[in-house]
Amino acid sequence: MSKKVISVFTAFAFILILCSFVISYSTDVKKLENRVEGKIVYNKKKHSISLSWPAFGSSGNYEITRGGSRLASDFVPVGSTSKLTFTDTKPSADKYENYYKVTRNGITIILSLESQIFGDSMYFYDRKYEKAETARKEINSHFGTIGLGGPNGEWTTKRQAYYFKANVNGQTYDPGGSGSASSAAANSIELGFYSHIGGLGKLPGDVKLGSVFTRPHLSGGANATCTFWRSMENVAVMRDFAWTVSQSTSARRMLIESTSKYISDVGSDNFWGSGGFIADTHYTSSRPNWGGQQQWYTRNAVFPSGSGAMGGSYNMVWQGCVNPPQADDANSPISSTPVIREKPFLFIDKDGEYKVFVPAWQKDRVGVSWSSTDMGDGKIQDLLTDWYVAKEGDTDVEINTALKSGKNIFFTPGHYALNAPIQVNRKDAILLGAGIASVTLEPTEKNIWGCIYADDKDGIIIAGLLMDSFNSTTYQVRIGNEGANTDHAANPILLTDITCRVGGVQSKNIQIHTSMQINSNNVVGDHFWLWRADHGSQPGGDARWVRDRAKNGLIVTGDDVTIYALFAEHYQEYEVLWLGERGRTYFFQNEPPYDAPNQASWSSQGSRVDGYAAFKVANTVKEHQSIGMGSYAVLTGTDGNVNKKNGFEIPNSPNVKLEKMCTTRFAGSGNIQNVINGIGGSTATGVKRVALYNNGKGIQPYDEVFDLPNSESYPAKVQPN
After folding, report:
1. What is the residue-wise DSSP string for 213-247?
2. Contact 171, 117 (CB under 8 A)
3. Radius of gyration of the chain (CA)
4. Helix (H, G, I), strand (E, B) or coil at 127
């Protein structure tokens, strides 16, 4: 792929961007057979568009046709030439609504400004020029033909995002249909692994889809516990939204106009899932039911009136929601969200230009951040002037150079192989990924420090990225240098929709100390999945215990850190270790490592305690509060005699408390012997719950000196500025 060059001059200048172009997809999605590079130049002063391309085909003229979108129903002839250039002097008024097919001897390439800016892993749809079913057919074709719906899709490095332009003149993207989303008659969009749907309007209601389904591939479609890595935002769903998912799945800023009873769509009796996350979403007509889900976190959603149960088995947290379920053992409604900033998103503004909306911080919020007429409080940034649009193949040098020059980074869907960390080293810098973009450390000696290092600066945002490790590293993500002590209360750091993955894909031995360490104060986390993979594309069992090494999922040393929707699983020591003051976690999900071969290899506190607590608040902490905590034993890869003494451990201190804790055993012979600090009972006799532990009568853990990462081996380029 050739590198892009973006130059934005004055109002009379050109926009020049170079990239690759591929053979056209028809609505039936033709197989890609050739790649031909081309270039397109827009002259704003003359409102003309110039095309150029290298020679292809054997003889005859190049025939040029133009349509309003890539999959437009009609392409009209605009010229014929024997040359390798062509200028359209009367393009459509909106420069982004000019897609050109250049054809010779049966070979067709497509050139457009959108393709140059965003590359070939972002797919744009425009109902103004396309039939209602066009987008659904293409997305479902991807689902069916490139492994995004089956087990092979789980480990692919292919990433994709599907963006819908705002509807006009009452049109929608709904092809029509009936029944629940999983039925053939529903004509649903099926969203697969590493896929994202985004609306390009200002409001969710600007883009209306029909029905959406995420199809599980296990147990004949009844098991969604591996339906990972997909997301949706800023759209309306008119008929049925069946978000049948588990971890690392995000649905945000949505308008759900109708939905079948069960959000998981295949019912409550024969379905099980381990999700999930929904935020900033308005259900207008019916109350959904999360039947069959083990747990779920829902933030700032609006539901129709009522307070009855909405499904779920163990740990359901409803924060800042309107009309949530009533509180009971499994359900924890929390009246408001104390501090939150919604995730930035891409949209097209009224001037026809691509922008990024960066929402404002809000305190004590209830309900959604937007209305039917107002996109909400925040700032609008111009994509071409304020951002660097990264594509797969871009290096850490290019990305870091753009950051240092003052650009924010928009990661188009891709697998970004780095030889050194991305260093976020300035105030208000933003990293925003689309299509579950992956930042991957390749197995070279040049990168032993991490994927992303953020300095201790105000207002940094890191969103929508998957951190993989194909190499041994200290961290995958580090926020603030060790000893960071700046007060960011007026402009906190935001981390949202973040996945860290250890193992699963690579086959070599790796060692990670900690997937994420938060050293800065006043950090807000909004949806993490920190995952030492319990399964993968390579052999598991005891071999995994020594091949995929990772001590901790999350270490927090900063003060006043707040995390919503924290999923952390299968790490080999404390999965979450909290050392900072005034920390808060709203919802926590955990499974211990499956694969500890024996108790001697998995014991804590100087080998005096069986296993490691899933969530550990250090004895030195004076103030902490968390609610909605679940840890579930699946101790299967063992000698049959491995147990965990405590699900949770905290100091017996008057200002440290954990609420609504739950433990149970899903599989295997091992058990969690106590819920917290030696009390609550063993999972050997079923589900165990502790409603509140605050300066309790349990056994306080032994004092420990924790093995924390240090900066001694950092190279100069990742030292804080």
Report:
1. E----BGGGTB-TT--SEEEES-EEEEEEE----S
2. no
3. 26
4. coil
Per DSSP, the residues of 628-658 read: EEEEEEEE-SSSS---EEEEEE----TTEEE
Question: Is 241 buried (19+), middle (13-18) or exposed (0-12) by CB count in 10 A?
Answer: buried
The token duo for 329 is: 């053992």
Q: What is the pLDDT of residue 6?
A: 32
Q: Which two tokens stand for residue 434?
A: 């689309």
36-68 exposure pattern, b = at least 16 Cβ within 10 A, e = fewer: bbbbbbbbeeeeebbbbbeebeeeeebebbbbb
What is the average pLDDT score of the chain? Answer: 90
Query: Is the N-terminal amide bond of 221 cis, ω within 30° of 0?
Result: no
- Mean per-residue pLDDT, 469-475: 84
Q: Which residues of 301-310 are buried (b: 16+ CB within 10 A; e: fewer)?
A: bbbeeeeebb
Mean pLDDT of 472-485: 91
Annotated active-site residue 659? The verdict is no
Residues 404, 182: Cα–Cα separation, whole Å: 47
> What are the pLDDT digits (tens) for 91-132?
999 999 999 999 999 999 999 999 999 999 999 999 999 999
Return the exposure string of 9-27: e unless at least 16 CB atoms fall within 10 Å of the residue's CB, then b.
eeeeeebbbbbbbbebbee
Q: Which of 593, 589, 579, 602 shows the shortest CA–CA distance to 650?
A: 579
Alpha helices by DSSP H, 319-430? 383-386, 396-404
- Say how far apart CA 237 and CA 251 lie, in whole Å: 12
Nearest to 265 by CA among 239, 285, 247: 239
| pLDDT in the model for residue 268 | 52
Name 409's bridge partners.
388, 431
What is the identity of the amino acid at 332? S
Phi and psi, residue 136, nearest 5°: -60, -45
Q: Is 107 helix (H, G, I), strand (E, B) or coil?
A: strand
Residue with tokens 């009936």: 178
Q: Is 445 buried (19+), middle (13-18) or exposed (0-12) by CB count in 10 A?
A: exposed
User: Among 144-153, 424-433, 437-446, 508-517, which stretch is predicted with the lowest mean pLDDT?
Assistant: 437-446
- Phi, psi angles (nearest 5°) of residue 135: -65, -45
Half-sphere exposure of residue 145, counting CA atoms within 13 Å on the CB side?
A: 11
What confidence score (pLDDT) does residue 442 get?
A: 72
Contact at 8 Å (CB) between 579 and 557?
yes
pLDDT at res. 234: 98
Cβ(619)–Cβ(652) under 8 Å?
A: no
Predicted confidence at residue 13, as pLDDT, reads 30
489-548: pLDDT as tens digits:
999 999 999 999 998 887 678 889 999 999 999 999 999 999 999 888 777 777 889 888
Instruction: Check 342, 591, 623, 712 and give the catalytic one.
Output: 591
CB 584 within 8 A of CB 615: no
Q: Which of 77, 122, 68, 119 is nearest to 102 (CA)?
A: 77
